[in-house]
Design brief:
Order of helices and strands: HHHHH
Oligomer: single chain
Helix content: 55-70%
Number of helices: 5
Structural class: mainly alpha
Number of strands: 0
Shape: elongated
Largest sheet: none
Radius of gyration: 19 Å
Strand content: under 5%
């Protein structure tokens, strides 16, 4: 049984989302609105945090271009790239060059 289908008010459903997933009041409101308009289950994404890294300016430019062309947000594109990298065992071309030297 989902949060919306349980016997309760909209405010109770919003409160349950905030407590269960640690999301903001505004995010909970948006998810409830989307869920009401949707016919299927709504997946609540994991809470996000800011993670600052230093990258070469040219790489940042290319990442932003790719995000715009692909309809990904910048955060989603970088997260997807890192997920793929980690699934590969964290191996990169840079590591292969080091081991060959």
């Amino acid at each position: 049984v989902g949060i919306l289908s349980a016997d309760g008010t909209h405010a109770e459903a919003k409160k349950a989302l905030i407590e269960k997933f640690g999301i903001s009041d505004r995010q909970a409101f948006r998810y409830l609105k989307i869920a009401q308009e949707s016919s299927g289950l709504l997946v609540i994404p994991e809470k996000k945090a800011v993670f600052t890294v230093k990258l070469p300016v040219s790489l940042i430019f290319r990442i932003r271009q790719r995000a715009q062309l692909s309809d990904y947000t910048l955060s989603d594109l970088v997260a997807e790239a890192l997920e793929i990298f980690l699934k590969m065992g964290g191996k990169s071309g840079k590591e292969e060059k080091r081991t060959q030297s």
